[in-house]
Amino acid sequence: MAAHVGMFYGYKGFVFPVGGRVQLPFWELDGRIPTRNLTYSGNALDAYPAITTFPRLEQSEAILIQTWDNKLMFKLSADGVNYEDEQEVDPDLNLGSWFHRVTARGFALENESAGAVARYQLVAFFV
Q1: Rg (CA), the chain
Q2: DSSP 3-state assignment of 76?
Q3: Angstrom distance (rounded) from CA 6 to CA 105
Q4: CATH superfamily label, 2-7+34-126
Q5: What's the rounded Cα separation, in Å, for the pair 112 and 7?
Q6: Domain map of the chain by residue range?
Q7: Looking at residue 74, what is its pLDDT?
Q8: How much is the pTM?
Q9: pLDDT digits over 74-103, tens only?
């Protein structure tokens, strides 16, 4: 699994002036706008591996997960040790993506069906 660090500048198309100030309804997270992202990509395994934690157990502000071939299952970790509830990403639904404003310090993912390898990309956004 490879991780790539990048800068995130938001989407200017989502900027709307409201009451004399600029509001970013899509990317504004409690008055904060994500400025960095960390991208992980690869092939999901048939069983959950150990939790992949973000550097320095940094906490995400939003997460985007995409898959192209097969369904995958994932679990986020709020503390970098324990898993939260399992969720599914289906390439045939919602453009094969899952995007939520969610705080997490790590994640793990697996193929929904053993042997049906799901290629994935997970992008964690940070303030």
Answers
A1: 15
A2: strand
A3: 18
A4: Satellite virus coat domain (2.60.120.220)
A5: 31
A6: 2-7+34-126
A7: 97
A8: 0.76
A9: 999 999 999 999 999 999 988 888 988 889
